[in-house]
Amino acid sequence: MRAAPTILHLDMDAFYASVEQASKPSLRGKAVIVGGLGPRGVVATASYEARRFGVHSAMPMAQARRLCPNGACLIPRFTLYRQVSDVVMALLRELSPLVEPLSLDEAFVDLEAGAVAFDSAGARATGERLRADIRAATGLSGSVGLAGSKMLAKVASEEAKPAGLLLIEPGTERELLAPMSVRTLPGVGPATGEHLRRAGITTVGDLAEAGEDELVRMLGRAHGVGLYRMALGIDDRPVVAERDAKSVSVEDTFDVDLHDRVRIRTEVQRLADRCVQRLRGSGHSGRTIVLKVRRYDFSTLTRSETLRGPTDDPAVVREAAARLLEGVDTTGGVRLLGVGVTGLADYTQEDLFAQSVAAGPQGEAAEAAPGPDGPEGAAGAAGAAGAAAGPLEGAGGAEPSAGPEAAPERRWAAGSDVRHAVYGPGWVQGSGVGRVTVRFERPGSEPGRVRTFRVDDPELEPSDPLPLVGEEPPAVASPDAEAPGPPSP
Q1: CB 34 within 8 A of CB 76
Q2: 106 is catalytic
């Protein structure tokens, strides 16, 4: 524990939704829900305006639509989110060489290691300057927590939301934590929280009063001792600059269960190729191929195969995933598929005929509890469509089959970037019945106008996302454009 609050935790506010609001001026101040748009889609992030209706992350998208029927429901655009995240992380690394990213929108920073703050006044000034720099560089807001430990800094940033800064002075930790819910502490999920509630422990102060011995008796030694220390505000974990990746994986949840074995094999091959792209993008190779299958009854199976050496060859990964699929019964239907690579290395061992050392199942996950699929599946599939900026792939990650002579109808997911030969850049508000509605606007402009086109209009094409700041808006499009309309849900 430090004597000065020089550990900073940054958490961007409603990150995905805030990026969408910043890039789409007509959505400023309105309810925005980002996630998978298919029947099994889930919410990845909701804007604060949508949260007032009870919408939250990991909620089924169908439920979010019912709670907030006028909200703008959009696919994730992970390409843009990563670009914005890179800008934010670069600002953090200007403060210190010790930056520990937790996700695209969250990180710890050791201010002492960067010699930018050694006391409360310096830490507060640095935090305020960081928030201003992020606003100038991205147009977005972030919440900052400052404390003498990582746990307390994260608690402080959560209390500072939205767009605030909270500094916890050393020595005041117990007083601050005492009235907070036990769920505030890391490691206390719904099950542990309910177990503690039944024992009459609902606040952090109750945990501290219960004592270490009682918590060990209730929760086991490791968990009990850890929770007791956190209840006292004790956390000596250092900020770690580099985290070694342990695995790379991709998965898709499908709007309708897949039964056709040929289609399932095709989807596994597609996922294997996407996984290798991500593997190569991270500069790694891998030795163990993992297949994940969630069946119609929500049971989730994993199968893995270890190769002779690490590889980033898509053909090798496809073949291994196909072999693993042969050992899985899919006759009842499949709702989710995933392919991953573990045992990562930073080199490859070229072996086009790499065979497994230990083929077959190496572990099977317990049956998953019935419920909506997680955001990694449904929202991740939607994100793949958005990142590719392609209209032919829907939020469920599956393109409908067509006859051998039929050309597939172009599909435009709500929120995706487009460009028109006449009207310039815009985004899809909605589509259906052979039509697509586009609002033509860009970051920094006034709310744009709306036009409707045929889905196969040759002058309309997918586009890369525009930067949030740094470019002047173009001249207004044709004056005979339709008047602005509300975002399509």
Answers
A1: yes
A2: yes
